[in-house]
Design brief:
Belongs to the SecB family. This protein is an alpha+beta fold. The chain has helices at about 5-10, 50, 120-150, 160-180; strands spanning about 10-20, 25-45, 60-70, 75-90, 100-115. Helix 3 crosses helix 4 (about 160-180).
């Protein structure tokens, strides 16, 4: 086996999923280049906050995934994973936690989808497998940004993007149903 085929095997994901019509689809995700699109960090009260900080701030993490077709007829897509983190510490007794920093990272990647399958199956593959591939780099970049600002950090747990996809799809369905009822 050539080194090219070894790399392709390592950098691809296969999915076989039933489409809404009951037909089977066989799609394969090819992983391309990953890159940092944007990084931002805002710190409240620096450097004073570092003098009074005790312990590791709690990291509240929000996640979003965006898919942009670059050449869908060729199966080429850009997927962007956004991680937004807020570091908080306990406020004075009886008050809300205090936000001491807000950090965000947008991490992108180029992905190819090969094989036959419905558009829904392609979207599902891209929404589940591509962010999983991007998460390690995005998380590393976010934590490095926070650490370089002088804050201690814990490592957020990996995210199950299959569950994330299912929850997001269910939320969209609920919103659409609520809109239908409101008419």
């Amino acid at each position: 086996m050539s080194s090219r085929s070894k790399d392709t095997k390592k950098n691809s994901s296969d999915i076989k999923a039933g489409s809404p019509e009951g037909k089977r689809s066989s799609l394969r995700l090819e992983h391309g280049t990953q890159y940092l699109c944007q990084a931002r960090l805002d710190v409240a009260g620096q450097p004073g906050i570092l003098q009074v900080l005790q312990g590791v701030p709690h990291l509240h993490l929000r996640v979003d995934v965006a898919i942009e077709p670059l050449a869908p007829e060729k199966g080429l897509y850009e997927v962007r994973l956004t991680l937004q983190g807020q570091g908080t510490i306990a406020g004075p007794e009886g008050q809300e936690p205090q936000t001491i920093y807000a950090a965000s990272v947008v991490y992108g990647g180029l992905f190819g989808v090969e094989g036959s399958g419905s558009e829904e199956a392609r979207k599902k593959l891209l929404s589940q497998e591509a962010p999983t591939a991007l998460f390690h780099g995005a998380r590393h970049t976010l934590l490095t940004l926070i650490r370089d600002a002088g804050f201690p950090v814990g490592a957020p747990q990996p995210i199950d993007f299959r569950t994330f996809w299912d929850q997001k799809k269910a939320a969209v369905a609920r919103d659409q149903a609520a809109l239908q009822e409101g008419r």
